[in-house]
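Weekly modeling sync, notes
Attendees: S.R. (lead), two postdocs, one rotation student

Agenda item 3: backlog of single-chain predictions. S.R. asked that every request posted to the team notebook include the full sequence so nobody has to chase files. The rotation student volunteered to paste the first one in as an example of the format we agreed on. Action items at the bottom.

Example entry:
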Amino acid sequence: MNLRALGEDRLLDRLLPDLPRNAGVVLGAGDDCAVVESGKPGLLHLLKTDCLVEGIHFAKSSPPQQVGWKAMARPLSDFAAMSGVPQFALVTLIVPARRTISWVRQLYRGIEKVARKFEVAVVGGETSNIKGPAVISISITGFVERKRWVGRAGGKAGDELFVTGRLGGSLRGHHLKFVPRIDESRWLTKNFPIHAMMDLSDGLGTDLPRLARASRVGFEVDETALPLNRGCTIREAISDGEDYELLFAISPRHSARLQKSWRKRFLKVGLTRIGRLNQKSKIKNQKFPVGYVHFKQR
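Predicted structure, as returned to the notebook:
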């Protein structure tokens, strides 16, 4: 069996259980970030690494400054998914020797721009030559308060599901210039008990089932309620991927106050109730369109 037949999630199901752990691990591989003890009262460390591959995550013709922005913004979006505060970054740049110095300089300008926006210090990394396409990998460390961190596994039957922003059509340009929802995430966990949360990197059709599986619940979605980007269909909003919006679950008793408070706090970022979590026996989305699945896409 090859990786195309298996797919990313099933591959990880085979690999992750055998990874070594120790007493400092609070949450290991399999969520948006790893969570480990910090040694400081009330605080936990978050760790995340992510990569961009030319031809997969960006085109050779993509503006290098936007590629750099995306390379840094992707792991920051995972920090947002867990309400984390990013602090330090390591950049690994793997590019062919024929790539111009100008391209690399512009790439780093993009990295620096988003790092400064979120007060992240770039403290090192690695460079290497490659004969194939360029790869940029960024690792980030930071912290989250022990009482505020959110994973995928806390969703409860009856919780309402919300998404920030709009969905669909990311490849028209949004995937290279999105802003990680760190500010929104930090506000959410300061003011509301969020049960489960993740960022939508592979599309609602792939990421929502992941959240539901981690929480051991089912889900139902009102597809007509999905907030669509201009010119997008419902199927594109579910399947396109790379939206980098937040998907989260919260008790319905907080729903009205959440929506009212959100409208006052975030004037330019929408918030939409799209469905709910339910008991597994009541899953109503067995034909829910799938999003992006690594190794399965050609």
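Discussion: group reviewed the output briefly. The helical segments are 3-6, 8-15, 64-81, 101-117, 182-191, 204-215, 234-239, 255-265.
Action items: rotation student to repeat for the remaining queue; S.R. to check formatting next week.
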